[in-house]
Structure formats: C-alpha cells, structure tokens
C-alpha cells in the first residue's frame, strides 16, 4: 500500500492525481476494519461489495478522463440510523430488525456518493440515539480506540471510534443533544454539528424532530470542511431543513481570526467542566487570543427544556412499540423513553415556548461575539459501565453528564466545530473544545478551528497499537 | 415532588395511554419522572409572557417564490 495520509483531503487529491486508486484506498479501509473492529466494535455492518463497486466506478471515471468529485475515492461510513439502500436501518435497535430494507439511500448518503466518496459500512450507536455512551446492549459497547476499557461517547459512538481507529477518515453522525460532539471529544477527532436546519435529515431515522441535526466527523479539519461542503444541499422536502442555498466553508478556511471577537463561556460552562476540560478551553482561548469570559444566557434552563422535549418527542415516537414489546428495547434507556411518554403536556409546551425566548437571547449574544469557546465534555472518556461521576464536588449520573456542555448549544441550534485537544492528566485521553458561532456562520467556527490546527493545538492522534 | 403522587400519576397516565407497566419497571419510570420534575420546576419558575409562542417548525406551505400573477417576488 502506498503511503497516503489518513486524511480525506489528501486521499481525494492522491486519487485525482493518480497516485493511488480508489480501490486501493477502500481495500485498505476494509482491511483496517477487519483487523481492528473485533476490539473497537464501531461497525454493525460493512458494505464491502458496494464499496468496491463505488471505488471501481471512481477509478473508471478517472481512466476515462472525466471530472472527479471533491471526495473521490474517500472511504466513509455512516451511523446506522442513515438509510443505506438494501439494508435495514437499525438505529441501534433490536426492534427495527423487523423493518424492511431501505429502498433508497438517505439524502446525505446520496450527497457523499455524488461527491465520489465510497461507503464502507454502518456504525454502532446508542439505541434510537437516546444516550451519550454507545453502551449498546444489543450490538455490544463501542470501545474507545485510545483505551479499549473506555467509552467512545455517543450516541454517534461508532462514528467517532471509526475515525479514531483509522478505519475511515470521514463518518456521518447525528446530534440532538451532543451526539456528534461528545464522541468527537472523547475519541479525539474533528466533528461538526451544523446549524439546525442546515443539512437535510431525509432518509435518517428520527429521534427528536424538533432538535435533530446531522453532520460529519473527520480525521482532519480539511476533511471535515470538504465533507460538510459536499453535504450541503437545500431540501424543501425536509420540514426541518431551512437552508436556501449552499454556503461553502472551504474558500474562507484560511482567513484567520484577526478581527473576530472571541470569548470563553463562563458560569454554567465553567462550573460543569472538570479542571482538565477547563484546561483545553483555556489553551484554545490563548491560541486564539481570547481573554474575555462570556455568560451564555439561561444555560441551565435550556438544558432542562432540551431534556424535556427530547423525552416527550422520543417517548411519543416509540409509544406503539413501548406498549407491546418494551422488553426488546435497550435496558439503559427504555425507562427514560417511557417516562418521557408520560410527561405532562405543560412541561413540553412550556419548554417549546421557552425555546423561542431563548433563541432570541442567544442571537442577541452574537451581536457582541463572533466565536465562543467551551469544552465539549466535562471530562475525558469514562470507563465503560461507569454509573456516577464526581464533578467539582458534585455527584452526577455519568451517562447524562456527558451532555451537560453540549445540550444548551444544540438547543439554540448554533453551529459548532468540535476540535480535538489533548490535556495533561488524562492518561493521554482527549477532550474536545466546542467552537461555537451564530446560526448560519459555520465559516467562522471553521476559521477559528483552522487556527487551532495550524498552531498544533488541535489535532488527531494515531492510536497506539 | 412526592414519590407517591408521581407513582399514582405514572400508573394512571400509563393506563390512559394503554401502556402496560410491571411494578419493577414502574418504579424505575417513577424515579426518572421525579428527576425530570425537578427540571420542569426550573422552567416553571422562568418568566414567560402570554405572547411567547412555541418554537414550532410547522408551516402550511412553502413561502411562494412567485406571486399569483407569475412575477418574481
């Protein structure tokens, strides 16, 4: 195998230049999955035949001298809530096994294919995306490639672990309350939760219609940007897709941060971060020349409202199956689903009314700031099975605590790039920093992330074998 | 909130929804709902005005890009 950097951008360039074939790249990806996934458990299915056919089609296009897409020959995989034609969309569940196979690819899978990317498989996740740890009882826990005793985060745990393990340089995940940013943080990879309404969700299995986002994870920031730009396409058939045109971030990626007003979130975000998480936020702030502490409005209330809306919509979505086959659900989340289905309607309505007031306060904050920083998780990856977490003198339920710092941000719908940083005192485990911008300003978050990458502060580390 | 009251609420609401709840599961659901009740109390105490509407995404139809005479708006 020729030596090509594990980076979607470098891979696509190498394929375009004829330095490597798409077939060679996909075979290397499949070989890596075969060699490592028995330990990591990121994949629930590989799509070997499809992958080789897609790779061969890319190579044939190049042989004919035709233009190649921006991700030509780049292997990628998707959380198993994305429809893949011919496969049943499991969404991490046992219940969905009885559903027919998807008749078409999800919109974002179609976008990746059109860009020349090559699908190698479907990825492990928390059942129906209701979790932050991917301790999936049906398919086994997804393990953190940097320490196999620890969680990969969730609910897009397979998406984070596959990138960290070197199995695929790009993956797709979903994020309702932190499900891209938490695994990005705990696995030490780049992740993007775009603006709510930016990317089409059509053809993905829903969790919470009001808050669901989809987005990419990647081994490099350039690869993340390349994938994100390829995924953009307004979709009038997704009622939650509000984007009316494509706004690529690659052209401005290297514009730097001069003139940008950058702050660090204090208050709730300081109080709910362990010292090592504060350390990475401080390092990112120092690198970006940010010294001001900023108060995010109503963070605790936003988390409460996000929690309630999630439980209500999630519980209602699965009520039919909860009535008849609750024992087939994930033991770690079934009781939360049921509790959500029983919530008084006033809780839900009040949370939705609060969300509009909250949105206005958050948007007002961005009149004064361009980019805001905070850790993505309170701590680095806990050991699988951990029930309780000591956080700054308080005892917190560990699984729920993983989303403390992400939930208020996604509830507002702001775009976030999660950048992988490597604090001291965590035994070599990463913690991500959220780079937050105003709605529709992914470009600003990417520019700040690029500066962190160029400074060597944020980067992906290969797994020690 | 009082655990017995939550338990009574869980039992009656589950019955209304036709959701079978064996006692062991009901106890776990009560514990979850009790934690959520504390979050709901936070929101309940936050001021909302009568005109603060839901953050809905419902729309009756896409906004037209041309008017009824066929001109671009």
What does this structure look like?
The complex is a heterodimer of chains A (465) and B (73). With 465 residues, chain A is of the alpha+beta class. Chain A is 37% helix and 16% strand. Chain A contains 16 helices and 17 strands. In chain A, helix 2 packs antiparallel against helix 3 (48-63) and helix 5 (157-164) runs parallel beside helix 6 (181-187). The longest helix of chain A has 21 residues, at 345-365. The radius of gyration of chain A is 20 Å and the shape is globular. In chain A, 61% of the residues are buried. The model of chain A has no long low-confidence stretch (mean pLDDT 97). Chain B is mainly α and 73 residues long. Chain B has helices spanning 3-16, 23-45. The longest helix of chain B is centred in the middle third of the chain and has 23 residues, at 23-45. Chain B starts with a helix and ends in a 28-residue tail after the last helix. The model of chain B has no long low-confidence stretch (mean pLDDT 87). Classes of the chains: A alpha+beta (465), B mainly alpha (73). Chain A binds chain B through residues 209-210, 236, 239-240, 298, 300-301, 303-305, 307-308, 311, 319, 322-323, 326, 334-336, 338-344, 347, 349-357, 359, and chain B through 9-10, 13-14, 17-21, 25, 28-29, 31-33, 36, 39-40, 42-44, 46, 48, 52-59, 62.
